[in-house]
Amino acid sequence: MKTPDYIDKLGPDPDGLDFDALRKAGIAMLQELCGERWTDYNLHDPGVTILEQFCYGLTDLAYRSEFAPEDYLAGPFGKIDYTRHALHQADSILPSQVLTADDYRKIIYDRIPEIEDVWLASADGDGNDAGPAVAGLYRISLKIRESLQTDLGSDEQARLEASVKQRVIEVFNAHRNLGEDLGEIVIIGTQPVFLCGDIQIHSLRDPAAIFADIYFRCAQQVVSGFRTERYLDARDGGASLETLFSGPKTVHGRILSTGSDTPGAPTPIARLISLVQSVDGVTHVQRLALCDESGRLVAGESADGKVLRLRFPDKEQSTFLRLHFASGGIGHYDVPSAAKSTQLQAEKAQIVLDDARIALRKARFEFDTVRNTVQLLEQIVPAPQGVHRALNEYYSIQHQFPAIYGINRYGVPSSAPLANKVSAHQLKAYLFMAEQLMANYLENLQAIPQVFSIDDLGQTYFSQVIDNQALPDIAKLYVDAPPQIGAMLARIVARMDKPEDRRSRLIDLLLAMYGEEFSQKSLRRFNYYEERHTARWLVDNKLAFLKNIAVLSRDRATAFDYTRGATRADGSPNRPGLHAKIAILLGLPPTPENDELSGQLLHYKLRLSTAGLSPAEYERAAAHLALLARSEDDGRHAAPNGEVLPVSLLTQGVRLENYILEQNGGTVHVHFQTHDSRLGIVKLGSYDDMADADLQMQQLRGFIRHLNMASEGLFLVEHLLLRPRAHGANDAGKPADDALPDFYASRISVIFPGWSARFSDPDFRSLAQETVCRNLPAHLYPEFYWLDFVSMRDFEQRHRIWLDSLRKVAGGAGLERLNTASASLTKFLQRHRGAGDLTYWV
């Protein structure tokens, strides 16, 4: 088959939305529908003319549907509100929190400029070899910059080391993962070494500059296992965004690991030779090694727990590294040369060393500048912009009809017969139905920024009124004013609109962009508090998940920072990332992790009781609760000595069907179904009319709903943080005798209240436990506790004391108090293990 020698300028639309394809499909459909009744499909046929105009109008819709995605989201001046559309740039959505020991090293190196290198290793016991190894406990070794310790006295050096250690504690805890903790921090000393060997260079570059480059590169390799690279340089070097922002986000550039992950590891000479060979001006490395002050070779590894540090030679040590001009050039020249003892050669050698020392300071300054400069990412990942378009502007196809049809802007001549005018209006009305659909389609295109957003929407389909400017003389055919016509159109469109269902599916699409899925479809079964708006409640939970998608995905394994109070350094709530995600997935109030769940009941001095109450006592308790519900003084009507709150009233009082209103003459009685076989139905009160009874019932139900929701939440307790600490820990700081050997390693306790309406449901408990296990890091083993009110109050008091002690120890004091508080909380967990409140999940 012969192929054409040219390429068509205009090819068919692959989606079949070009004019020719639409006209051909329309003709085929007409032939199929009309059969023998209509045989003339030529251009002069009015039906074909109408078809062609509709095809033309559809091509306009197709054209407006094929703009770049950012154009549909662009506002004035092309700006896109990324927060509104739950869109995140690469530097905010791609980085994760620390996951590995190497990630901890990079983030500490990035945040603390006084550190030259840092290493993490598994610690034993409390980090002082006082106990068995515990998984997740780290020992951090630091190497501090030598320039900061020069000319410092012992007291000043001790203060510097203490300050660096404290900053390491703060950085570590700000990025700490669940089930991990810091055992101890040690400062590692250094052992000075020197370069020795013979290196050939060429004469096209200053020997002093070559000498400085060699020492600087080798010194960086010996002294630090990290290299800081500008994000812009990394991007220009071909690094992808996924590579640039892999791991934790570092603010001073991309941190590259080039050394060993353990202190004191041998420095590979082959690596040093490779670095020297890459220096501009070096032609050949004849011999290279590390030696001490006496000139003895060093094997490349440190001794006595120290690490190597490359020193620049002084006058007496100038014979260690020799540079030679390559043969065949200017001649033979040694810098410095021990063989030549003339005064001239000594002066030349000293000049080269002095110039090299200046060049070395310049290279170090440039290195420190790159490391300590916060990188601006706007130029690395520029925010996309679009073109703002008025997509909903509709221009009727009737403007394109021949004037003889009488439906364009010229209309029907005034001299035409009435029948012609009526026929023109009939055709205009006939075409209007299809044109209204096309105008609505354009309005839905204009509404894309609304439906693909985190806005609170009550509709997902939209319509617009076609006015005389868009369609000539259409207003004459309307039976009402344009605003009323718009309301009618909205009601018609609303019949086909299922906003909760479509909104839910649209949010699923936005979540899928980040590889996430809201899997809590069964949560709607447990909407005890908004039964008539279950679908909307689920949409709200999805929206909360979408709004926090960057934080929830990044911090999914992050623990709370026990060195701080209720908020982190960035102002966000100080709670584990898992806690925030579980709260959204289970529809829990977004309270900080250390808030008291028993607080609301205590505030109103209500005592939960499962004891058998008489109907009179039950009615008195309900009357007191109704008084609290009616009052707006925030609990000033609470009984001085407290009041009993029946558990059945708390758990069943949120359900509307449990309230029974009975009218007896002029009095309305409100009864309550207790679901207690002994009590049955009890009377809550009597009112003068139905409206007052209904109001009081709704207030009581709303208040009970508030008490239930305020009581729901969870606590996460990391067993590793409960470990006994050394340095004088007494018996109270040791684990209980019945503690499991692996109690502290890779375990976490999840504490739920068991008295609210939802949390007392066995099916919801299973859902809650499954949700935690699906989102908990795989290496952690969860233990679930469902506590009653008294046990929860006991736990909260112990937990609060323990948190306060933990924060004080992080500040450097109160170790004995922490051991006592940890032992108290440990004993509580162990006691409730055997009390039937603990649930294991496998």
Description:
Helix 8 (about 205-225) packs antiparallel against helix 11, helix 16 packs parallel to helix 17 and helix 19 (about 575-585) crosses helix 24 (about 760-775). The radius of gyration is 39 Å and the shape is flat. Among the domains are: about 1-65; about 95-185, ANL, C-terminal domain (GMP Synthetase, Chain A, domain 3, 2-Layer Sandwich), CATH 3.30.300.30; about 190-225 and about 260-370, no CATH class; about 600-710, no CATH class; about 715-840, no CATH class. By secondary structure, it is an alpha/beta fold. The strands form 6 sheets. Strands 4, 7, 8, 9, 10 and 11 form a 6-stranded mixed β-sheet that branches. Mean pLDDT is about 80; it is low at about 125-130, about 330-340 and about 730-740. The protein is about 40% helix and about 15% strand.
The chain-level structural class is: alpha/beta
Helix content: 40-55%
What's the total count of β strands?
A: 20
The geometry reads as flat
